[in-house]
Amino acid sequence: MIDYKSMLPNDVETLKRLWLKCFYDKEEATELFFKRNKNYTHGYVAADGDIIVSAVYLIDCNLCGKSAHYLCGAATLPEYRNRGIMTELIKFALADAKKRGDCYSVLLPANEGLYGFYAKLGYSEGCTSCRSFFECEPAAESVDNAEPDYFELQKCSADKFLLWNKNYIEFARDYYACYGVKNVIGKNAFALFERKGDTAEVFYAIYNSISELNLLLSSKGIKQFWLTGSASNPLFENAEPTVSGMIMPLGGSKALNNVYIGITLD
Question: Is the pTM of this model over 0.85?
Answer without folding.
Answer: yes
